[in-house]
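Single Protein Entry

Contents — chain, fold
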Amino acid sequence: MLIEALALNEELSGRESQSSRHQLFSWWREWTENHALAVGDDARLQQLIELVYGELGFSGNWKDFFNSQNIFLDKVIEHRFGTSASLALLVSYFADKFELNYEFINLPGCFVLRFVFERDVYFDPFSAEILSLHEVELKLRGYKGDLARLSAEHLRPLKHNEVMIRWLSALKSSLIREDKFEPALRVSEALLRFNPDDPHEMRDRGFLFQQLDCASVAIHDYEYFIEKCPKDPVADLLKIQIRSLEQDSATIH
């Protein structure tokens, strides 16, 4: 999955990904030259953690969490800082090398990996900590509030496309926060390739077109959202936004 994400990363950033792929391969080749695979899943998981967070020195970037360079995968590999999304993809690459079974689970707000051994092992790729189910629930509460409770839906394995969408969505949000609207638009359009009929993504794309002074296209995307989600509270705000854009366009012409 990381290699596919790197290809998308190259498309979105305009930076080639060959050196990143080569770096990953070199790290793994060097490790196999100096270590033998342990016997047993738990021992191999410890080897994986030691390789990624110990020998290679990756870590979650607490100090500059929202920086898009923590999500662009080539920059993560270069600087060895990441978010839960980018580090989860990195860990999944090495988990495949260690022949470990794992799943991304559907926890809102952050990525958590579940390693499927004789018992389930939950792993936070941002902090490099193994979590109890209680600690997984605390993460959920931190995102959704103290009344939230862990359910089967939160522990549902994410499908391949869902993982990619979560990573791309995190990247888009970071770029918008940095007022980098053109690259954010490229990410939005990549997201629409995964789910072309998503009205919320169309709404977000409309916002980005508006920031780039592409009023007619923004209006089209806003109208699509209003048609598909007429009862959403945002729909009324977008109707006002459309009238304003139409007036501005009429004034200019």
In short: The beta strands are 59-60, 81-82, 102-104, 113-116, 120-124, 129-131. The CA atoms of residues 165 and 191 lie 6 Å apart.
